Amino acid sequence: MTEQTVTPGATGTPGATGTPTTTEAPPSDHVFTPPVLRPEAPDASPKPPRRVLRAVARWTAAALAFGVLGTGTAFGIASLERTDVPGLATEDDGRWDYPELSLPALPAGSPPPFGAGNPAEIHHADLRDLLLPAPAGAVPDKKLPGGWISTETFLEAYRQQDRQSVSQLIEDAAPRHIAARGWTMPDGTTSRIYLVRFTSTAFASGMIDDLNVGASAGTPLDRTDTTEIDASWSSQNDFENTSSFVFAEQAPFGAEHVRQAYTLAGDTLALVVHERPGKRETDRIAFQQTLILQNQLLA
């Protein structure tokens, strides 16, 4: 099993589909380092609308609850013991065997999402190429193969009685694209990753606010019962340009155990879900590893 790190892609066609390409494995003592992409020509994107100001109070409270203020990113991760970081721990701790990762190439002249000249924090790379690839041994979800999905398919992540209200929120925010990938592991754990791209970070953060995500998990996901903040998630696992809201079902739970997380990364909202049938909890290490690696692709 190898460690993962993301490096900018040297070649590629704008808008190409597919998963990120692999790169040579780094030395064994390598730690996560957010990729540095050189900004190109400035972007004329408009300033985010004032709607985001409405969410400031909620974000402040949620940030305090999760400890996301003062995120250490790579510096914080570097200061931890290897066994404290899911993506860098020992091979027998429950990590999944993900392939080496690399960032897709940006369209010519496009700045990185958090670079100069990109105030709306737009991800110009193909959203499908920013989805985390499945680990070794996974059986792909035929309904979520790693491509574009419809709003109706995304709504299936939520309880039946809440889908109409979430549908209205999506219609109001008018996302540009939704992409998703899912798979099932040999132990029965299913993983689903949804990426929703909006026209700016204001609309992405507004969606989290409208879903009431913060001090609580917000609008319940399908097949969830009592879901609370996962106190085992450390702010040091977040990257500089991402903010994660991490939750886990509490005992007693129903026919399956669910872990979930929302991540805001500029114009893109990520929803990561791990679900395991039976009375055993989903593995915390594998879930946090999945979340860290997905966030790294978006940072």
Description of the molecule:
By secondary structure, the chain is α+β, with helices and mostly antiparallel strands. The chain has one domain. It contains six helices and nine strands. The protein has a seven-stranded antiparallel beta sheet with strand order 3-4-5-9-8-7-6. A two-stranded parallel ribbon has the order 1-2. The chain is globular.
Beta strands, count: 9
Strand order of the largest sheet: 3-4-5-9-8-7-6
- The 3D shape can be described as globular
Domain unit count = 1
Q: How much of the residues is beta strand, in percent?
A: 15-25%
Uncertain regions spanning at least 5 consecutive residues: 9-90
Mean pLDDT: 78
Q: Structural class of the secondary elements?
A: alpha+beta
Order of helices and strands: EHHEEHHEEHEEEEH
**Describe the biggest sheet?**
7 strands, antiparallel
Distance N terminus to C terminus?
A: 24 Å
Radius of gyration: 18 Å
Note the total helix count. Answer: 6
Approximate helicity band: 10-25%
